[in-house]
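Entry type: protein chain
Record version: 2
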Amino acid sequence: MKNRELEAAREYHNSTKHSYQSIRTNPHYLDWENQPIPFKIYSELEPIPLTQKLSASAIPALAAIASAGDPKTPIVLTLQVLAEILFLCAGVTKRRSYPGGEMLFRAAACTGALYHIDLYLVCGNIEGLAAGVYHFGPHDFALRRLRQGDYRGVLVRAAGGESSIAGAPCIVVCASTYWRNAWKYQARAYRHCYWDNGTILANLLAAAAARRLPARIVVGFMDDTVNRLLSLDTTREASLSLVALGRVSPGAVGFSPEAEPLELATVPLSKKEIEYPAIKAMHDASSLEGEGEVLAWRGEQQNAQPARTEPQGSSERRLFSLQPLTDDESPQDSIETTILRRGSTRQFSREAISFAQLSTMLDRATRGIAADFLNPAEPTLNDIYLIVHAVEGIPAGAYFYRRDKRALQLLKQGDFRRDAGYLGLDQEIPADCSVNIYFLTDLKRVIERFGNRGYRAAQLEAAIIGVMLYLGAYAQRLGASGLTFFDDEVTAFFSSHAAGKAVMFLSAVGQSAKKKA
């Protein structure tokens, strides 16, 4: 029961915090000659090409973001729909040549553009694809079959009989190869496992919603069972999350064959790999080891406290109720158009955005995600804080998002551009944008409830909602960028209100300085 040895998550989080001193005294440098390739390539498996024809959904991006989860009239999953979803969450959308080679940009952003998250499919027979276990290769937009036959029952058992897994025609498994990110970010790369997994899942949820396909995220499962099914080398890679995609009749998943060991050759990532023991130690400490432990872990979902309310007296502070655009007033760009347009804004203009634009992002992105670690009594594990620089209709200052009131609560008024730039590793982006949106969690409460695995859930949830905000910005022709931060300084800036909370994620939003086409 390593998951209940609760010091592991706190120790990892504290040991990987950024501070002004740690950034400037770290001797790490980027060894470009040893940079890992951004793909997992099975050298001896035949590709099964996927069609790259992308149909246009009828649902605007902002509506897709808001309705991710469980549509009322779901469609039947086919290989064509599956291919579209894979493209929109992990496909190569742009290619750019430079003197040393070619950069391939993906549908979902990744820390350092290192793309360490791989997608696997475990499916029954669906239209166009036989039952099996497959790896998705973005480099050639093809599947490669690792196992033949219906192995969904293995995941049903691994997830403790989770009903969405049992009723799904296809389960997407997200996994990370640590070195592909740790090459740059060292031990902090374990945080990025869930940031970058959450980025992909935000796209996946929106793309699935636009196709009226149910999707539910599952974080509670027996790690070794899933890793063995995918034949992962657990010294250097691991499964992170499952997504039940689509719905068939309950009980449709039957007996699965035994997942025998596989010997599958892959192309080396780089000349040598450097191991960061803290990554594997954190993953091991947050792993679930048996079906009983999975059931107990998921049972903690029922122990959620009612939605958090503000301390007495806080109502006297100024509240600004959200003023989101209606569906008819909102931009109608599709999720496909939005994802293909999406980038990572590297320079903001300091121009203001409207309060309606900010309200619309917050309104659509915080309507809830379907996940096994959430229930209606507690809509999220993270709280949202903001530093507003230039939003028409509200004063510049620091804010807390009151979900219960659907309003922004002003904590302190003033021009905090300089502070925000410093908090974002002393960079111009968080100083020049219109608003910085931070996700903070009560880590003590989350870990006590879910064990060390609660750290995974909190990081993943923050990234999903943060990227839904990101997509909401691009849907409104704004710019956005994900950033890292000085951990303790962010908490201190928002305290005493944020005292005791830990920062999970940061998104910057505003007007791009790049001229719009």
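Comment: The chain has a mean pLDDT of 92.
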